[in-house]
Amino acid sequence: MEIEYSSSSIQQYFSDLYDIPNSKNLLQKKIGPILAKTETKMSGLSREMIIHPGETLREVLEERNMSQQELALRTGVSAKHISTVLSEEKNISVNFAKKLEYALGIDAEFWIGLQALYDRQLLEFDELHSISKEEISIFKRLKDVFNYIVEKKFISKEKQMEQNILELRKYLNVSNLTAISYLVSFGAFKVQTNVKYDPYVLFAWQRICESLSEKVTTKELPREEQIKQLLKICPEIKKLYRLSQDKINKKLQEYFSLCGIAFVIAPTFKGAPVQGFIKTNSDNKTIICMTLCAKRPDSFWFTLFHEIGHFINGDAKQRFIDFESVENEREIKADLFAQNMLGKRS
User: Fold this and answer.
1) What pLDDT was estimated at residue 272?
2) CA of 210: how far to CAs of 206, 256, 288, 305, 315, in Å?
3) How far is Cα 320 from Cα 191, in angstroms, rounded to an integer?
4) Please, is 17 exposed, middle or buried when counting C-beta atoms within 10 Å of its C-beta (0-12, 13-18, 19+)?
5) Residue 343: is it exposed, middle or buried by C-beta count within 10 angstroms (0-12/13-18/19+)?
6) What phi, psi does 64 have (nearest 5°)?
7) In 10 A of CB 165, how many CB atoms?
8) What is the C-alpha R_g of the chain?
9) How many CA atoms lie within 13 A of 341 on its CB side?
10) Is the pTM of the predicted complex or chain greater than 0.70?
């Protein structure tokens, strides 16, 4: 059974499962310190403070004046096996937990729960104390991105830098920040080699786009209907030109939502000279994300219709990212669509 790792859920877990005679004091004694540790950041603990289930088993035997040999006979395992568990050299397996339930009258889930907590705390302790200098360097490069993510409450900011690195890993869906450069080169999204960018910032930027789009509700439409609706609203989009940027953003989100597309405006960061981002998720939800980095107002509109052109041309399937100055066949086709909609730029 997988246990959610929070003090309230763990306490509920144990209180729901156990009301065992002669074990109440033991449960209070052992679970209390474990729950307290879940409220303490692992970076503030020493490894010795993480309780192995073998310690609990030792105390049970002491309370019952039961020898290791007797427990071995009752559980049907070797005395050596009991000794290695009590000396914290071996973990309590699911199979052994069930044997302990029969031998001691303490539910197997209790022992499984203790082992799960120990494994989780030990893993997080080891992770916090094995973060490489390279990953710390990457985290520092992502300082502005991290602050924005915290500001938007996509993640919470912790006191310890190491804990923040773990939070950022979870947000970016990588087990180590160093993996990002490999994902970019592997083709997690389409990039161009003739533009200078920071792969870590760029990767985090597109994740922000995805997060912002999750709050946008869209209609579910087949692609053919999406294209039809897009072409229909393009004249209406052009009429928004003279509105304030806030009103423009709101109206654009409404228009695109009717076409089954989530439209969002994302911030710009040094290292990611991006104008737009377009992708289609596995659930068929399309995202168009833009920045306001254009130096001229008409550049925003040209880029907007440029992104629409990408969608119509089928580029959304590749997580296509538009930089400030890139030319290739896809970009030329998207430019032609924008020019046809707006007329040639002066």
Assistant:
1) 85
2) 6, 16, 9, 20, 17
3) 7
4) middle
5) exposed
6) -100, 5
7) 21
8) 28
9) 26
10) yes
SS3 readout for the chain: CCCCCCHHHHHHHHHHHCCCCCCHHHHHHHHHHHHHHHCCCHHHCCHHHCCCHHHHHHHHHHHCCCCHHHHHHHHCCCHHHHHHHHCCCCCCCHHHHHHHHHHHCCCHHHHHHHHHHHHHHHHHHHHHCCCCHHHHHHHHHCHHHHHHHHHCCCCCCCCCHHHHHHHHHHHHCCCCCCHHHHHHHHCCCECCCCCCCCHHHHHHHHHHHHHHHCCCCCCCCCHHHHHHHHHHHHHHHHHHHHCCHHHHHHHHHHHHHHCCEEEEECCCECCECEEEEEEECCCCCEEEEECCCCCCHHHHHHHHHHHHHHHHCCHHHHCEEEECCCCCHHHHHHHHHHHHHHCCCC
Q: Which two tokens stand for residue 312?
A: 């119509």
Count, residues in the chain: 346
Q: What's the rounded Cα separation, in Å, for the pair 94 and 113?
A: 10
Name the nearest CA neighbour of 17 among 95, 116, 120: 116
Do 177 and 138 meet the contact criterion of CB atoms below 8 Å apart? yes
pLDDT at 10: 47
- CA–CA dist 78, 75 (Å, integer): 9
Tokens matching residue 109 = 């889930």
Q: Chunked in runs of 10, what are the mean pLDDT values of the chain (346 residues)?
A: 40 48 50 51 65 94 96 96 96 97 95 93 88 96 96 93 94 95 64 72 92 89 89 90 86 92 91 82 81 71 87 71 62 86 62
Give the closest residue to 90 by CA, choosing from 102, 101, 77. Answer: 77
- The predicted structure's pLDDT at residue 324: 52
DSSP β-bridge partners for residue 286:
261, 280
Is the separation of the CB atoms in 13 and 116 below 8 Å? no
What CA–CA distance (Å, rounded) separates 4 from 115? 13
Distance CA 271, CA 147 (A): 15
